[in-house]
Design a protein that fits this description.
The protein has 18 helices and 13 strands. The chain is of the alpha+beta class. Among the domains are: 97 residues, no CATH class; 63 residues, no CATH class. The strands form three sheets. Strands 1, 4, 5, 6, 7 and 8 form a six-stranded mixed β-sheet that branches. The chain has a five-stranded antiparallel β-sheet with strand order 9-10-11-12-13, with no helix packed on it. A two-stranded antiparallel ribbon has the order 2-3. A hairpin with a 7-residue loop joins strand 4 and strand 5. It holds the Pfam family DUF772.
């Protein structure tokens, strides 16, 4: 006979939430894995001793971690999603008939808590990863990726020069409340170079007879976002321009655990953020008595000062040298002991002086005497329009040269593959599965908190997976005689003779 299920929507008298969540459930195991009580002490000084009770700090952090684990960016969607899941309600400590906090309460609490509390949670989870043997500490892979900001590129405004009124400042009152990011701070030579480059682009992009308006030529030196002044215009290869933040990560190569994360401005090179990243990474590793020896990064971190910094701290930098650097100059040989170059004719070009560029980069200048060059038969092909031959090298030529030699070695090629297989998959997971495709907060501090939460959720997944593998390995490693004895006892009890 055909069956037909009837739904009566009756009120259930006896219902226990813990009985409906299985033992192997992710959130049930997560609730048993982490001791969340330390968050009460970390946030106690942020509340008054009077007034209405606030949202439980532990509930808040569990909620925002669920948002990362479920790949939910919106707080409103997060609350709606949690209300439909019994396992998440059990993880949060809410009954089925209890109302979850409003999404605006989550947003206000996120703004209330400083970034130090989020970092404390990250350190707490990282300490458990170290205790489980998931972190070796000696080799770290570093990389960065842009994350879309909560602002639109269409709403950017033009900056004004200090002491003047820009096109968007109609009154003195508007100028008084304008953010600091609305003032042009770039040096004059950079603005001239930018204007020349935009003029060339405007000539090449203009098509005669086209009805489409010409694209806006935007730059962080001349434009800013009034919605989120900390967001910066950046361009990712293969993607359109957008307002972004930069997420910088350090990943341990032993098991892929994130050891450091920070939010940076997206309008500067990756190499400029390495000193701050290295400082935070080493502080965390030293707290667990771990020593860093090798640092892996891509060519975006190639910088002479970074090479010198890592060598001063006795760290091996496996960072490919940037493409513009050449270890050898054709036709010239370098004498490291005397710090001079020799040309094909055997004439010496000794070191003469230090110099700086307009951007503040230091360089070393080498040149030969005018008498040597004037009497040289190779002058028409070497320096046809000058009195003497001059070479300009970076101040950090020696660290560059050693990094280039490591890059060409067999181990350097191996380290490049290790970096690609370690940190790049982590970024792919964070962006596509942990809610870092777009931020739902504004400001550099808010971006840093969101990135910390995504890293905490990723490390928790690593911790849970390792714990499950340990349990399976323990079951497989059960001695066979003991297993046979248990089997005989079970059969004897089940079928007594």
């Amino acid at each position: 006979m055909q069956g037909k299920k009837l739904f009566l929507d009756k009120e259930v008298v006896r219902f226990r939430l813990s009985e409906r969540v299985p033992r192997h459930n992710l959130y049930r195991r997560l609730a048993e894995l982490v001791d969340w009580s330390f968050l009460y002490q970390e946030t106690q000084g942020l509340y008054s001793h009077t007034g209405q009770p606030s949202l439980d700090p532990v509930v808040f952090f569990k909620l925002v971690l669920v948002g990362r684990l479920e790949n939910l960016v919106s707080d409103r969607r997060l609350v709606e999603h949690c209300a439909l899941r019994l396992d998440i309600l059990y993880f949060l400590g809410y009954e089925v008939d209890e109302e979850l906090p409003w999404h605006s309460t989550i947003s206000r609490t996120r703004q209330l808590f400083p970034a130090a509390v989020f970092e404390r949670l990250f350190d707490h989870v990282f300490a458990q990863c170290v205790a489980r043997g998931l972190v070796a500490g000696d080799t770290q892979a570093v990389d960065s990726a842009p994350v879309k900001a909560n602002a639109s590129l269409e709403a950017v405004l033009e900056k004004h020069v200090a002491g003047t009124r820009g096109p968007f400042l109609a009154t003195a009152e508007a100028a008084a409340v304008a953010p600091a990011a609305s003032v042009v701070t770039a040096p004059a030579h950079q603005l001239r170079n930018l204007a020349a480059r935009q003029a060339r682009l405007a000539v090449h992009s203009s098509v005669p007879g086209s009805r489409h308006p010409q694209a806006r030529l935007l730059s962080n030196k001349t434009h800013y976002s009034p919605t989120d002044p900390d967001a910066r215009i950046s361009l990712k290869p293969g993607k359109a321009r957008a307002l972004n933040y930069l997420c910088s990560l350090a990943v341990d190569t032993a098991h892929g655990v994130i050891s450091h994360v920070q939010a940076d401005l997206a309008d500067s090179r990756d190499s400029l953020h390495l000193p701050r990243l290295l400082l935070g990474l080493q502080r965390r590793l030293r707290a667990h008595e771990l020593r860093l020896r090798d640092l892996l990064a891509d060519a975006g971190y190639a910088n002479g000062s970074n090479y010198a910094l890592l060598e001063a701290q006795h760290l091996t930098a496996w960072i490919p040298v940037f493409g513009q650097y050449k270890a050898e100059i054709e036709g010239f040989t370098y004498d490291a002991q005397q710090d001079l170059y020799r040309c094909r004719a055997g004439k010496a070009l000794p070191f003469r002086k230090y110099d700086t560029t307009a951007d503040g980069n230091w360089s070393k200048i080498y040149w030969a005497t005018c008498q040597d060059c004037q009497q040289c038969p190779l002058k028409p092909t070497c320096v046809p329009g000058a009195k003497r031959k001059q070479l300009t090298r970076t101040l950090y030529d020696a660290p560059y040269r050693r990094a280039w030699q490591r890059q060409q070695s067999r181990r350097g090629q191996h380290m490049r593959r290790v970096r690609q297989s370690t940190v790049e998959p982590v970024f792919g997971n964070l962006i596509h599965h942990y809610g870092l495709r777009r931020l739902n907060v504004r400001g550099l501090a808010g971006a840093h908190k969101t990135m910390l939460l995504a890293a905490v959720a990723y490390n928790l997944k690593k911790l849970l997976k390792h714990r499950l593998q340990q349990q399976v390995a323990a079951a497989v490693a059960l001695p066979r005689p003991l297993l046979a004895a248990n089997t005989r006892t079970w059969r004897r009890n089940r079928c007594p003779s």
